[in-house]
Amino acid sequence: MKRLLASCFGLGRLPVAPGSWGSLPPVVLFALMSGLGLSAAAVSVVMAICVLLGSVICIKFAPFVIAATGKTDPSEVVIDEFAGQAVTFLFIASAPIKNFWTAAMLGFLFFRFFDILKPWPIRKLEKLHAGWGILADDLLAGVFAGITSLFCLIGWSNLRLAGEL
After folding, report:
1. Which tens digits make up the pLDDT trace of 126-165?
2. Distances from the Cα of 112 to the Cαs of 7, 20, 42, 145, 158, in angstroms?
3. What burial class does residue 132 get, using C-beta atoms within 10 Å of its C-beta: 0-12 exposed, 13-18 middle, 19+ buried?
4. Residue 10: what are its φ and ψ, rounded to 5°?
5. For 82, which of 31, 54, 152, 157 could close a Cys bridge (C-beta 3.0–4.6 Å)?
6. How confident is the model at residue 99 (pLDDT cuts 50, 70, 90)?
7. Peptide bond into 121 cis (omega under 30)
8. HSE on the CB side for 114, CA within 13 Å?
9. Separation CA 144–CA 68 (nearest Å)
């Protein structure tokens, strides 16, 4: 059960790009909730719950997977990507969004960009002990992706408004 939860119900065991697969559930949740017209507050609450649950599961169960695999950052542990991706959507839930699929894809792409490249200081966080190191870099990647996505969405919205004047 610990490995199942840490792998985000098996998504981390997929052979290609497990981190991207682990990032998808919050993307789908965000897009569906936005598409159904739920308020920014409701979307934010759900994303905050995803961050909290993903973080707790990662910290609690990643050490078990580390011990079982002998790897310091097992690729099957993707619950950290789940939590980090949800952080991204906490930033953009209240952005001026006309097309929620565009916002969802933008958030996904920026999160994967920062999670894969790990610019300073994201990479430094990987050195934290056990589940904390696995989780912390993804949470900060989510912050970077959220801020970048928010600026893009606001900028795009302002450009559209300026064109209408």
Report:
1. 888 878 988 999 999 999 999 999 989 887 666 555 555 4
2. 17, 7, 24, 8, 26
3. middle
4. 95, -10
5. 54
6. confident
7. yes
8. 28
9. 32
d(CA 1, CA 38): 32
Answer yes or no: are the C-beta atoms of 72 and 16 closer than 8 Å.
no
Record the pTM: 0.90
Please tell me the distance from the alpha carbon of residue 130 to that of residue 6, in angstroms, as a whole number. 13
Residue 85 CA to residue 76 CA, distance in Å, equals 16
Tokens of 165: 């004047």
DSSP result, the chain: -HHHHHTTTTGGGSSS-HHHHHHHHHHHHHHHHHHTT--HHHHHHHHHHHHHHHHHHHHHHHHHHHHHH--SS-TT--HHHHHHHHHHHHHHTTS--S-HHHHHHHHHHHHHHHHHH-TTTHHHHTTSSHHHHHHHHHHHHHHHHHHHHHHHHHHHHHHHHHHH-
